[in-house]
Predict the 3D structure of the following.
Amino acid sequence: MNARTYWIAFQSILTKEVHRFTRIWVQTIVPPAITMTLYFVIFGNIIGSRVGVMAGVGYMQFIVPGLIMMAVITNSYSNVASSFFSAKFQRNIEEMLVAPIPNYVIILGFVGGGMARGLCVGLLVSLVSLFFVPFHVHSVIVVVATVLFTSAVFSLGGLINAIYAQSFDDISIVPTFVLTPLTYLGGVFYSITLLPDFWRGVSHFNPVVYMVSAFRFGFLGIKDVSLWFSFGVLSAFVVGLYIWAHILIKRGYGLRS
């Protein structure tokens, strides 16, 4: 087997994953945009008019990067979690495991599909936000790098959840009890600098804080934590989760009957 063969295998998995969520775009892409629109209306217009200014900018401008990041996180995660578990449940994944392709190709194919959906939804939410507030991009490089790292982290997280899951109900446990609390407590709607010292310290254990802070810096030029430290945390999560996923697939944990 050569590099060209591996590339074709990666393209095949990625194309299948992209086709999977674009084929039912009304269910996978439109609902997040509608949900984020409601956030813009309720938190931006209604509550934001009373909050006024946050961290030196209008409240609506302040929450836009966080809401975009929230959409990227949830969709990157859910796409891979549901897709990989479906392949495992239907035993399609066994065909990939016995095929003469390395495990990293399988991982990158599924993760690439999750990232594609996350980026599509994030772009759509960004366009929707323009109807509510104008905003400029402070650093395109930071914006692109942050959204790529974040979508990769949660795509890998969705893959790991799907490997461990024994039923479709298990897929919803992590989004409900882990992702939602981390996201709402990750500085999407407020600056962690406003928190008391104790809770500000606790917030630094939340990885979403670093994602939202870096992404907000890319748009507005303001941040709650060090930009370089944020990228260090994101890089560590990408590497750590990839190694975890690779070990699980190599061992065939929960994948082989």
In short: The chain has a mean pLDDT of 89. DSSP finds eleven helices and two strands in the chain. The first helix runs from residue 3 to 23.
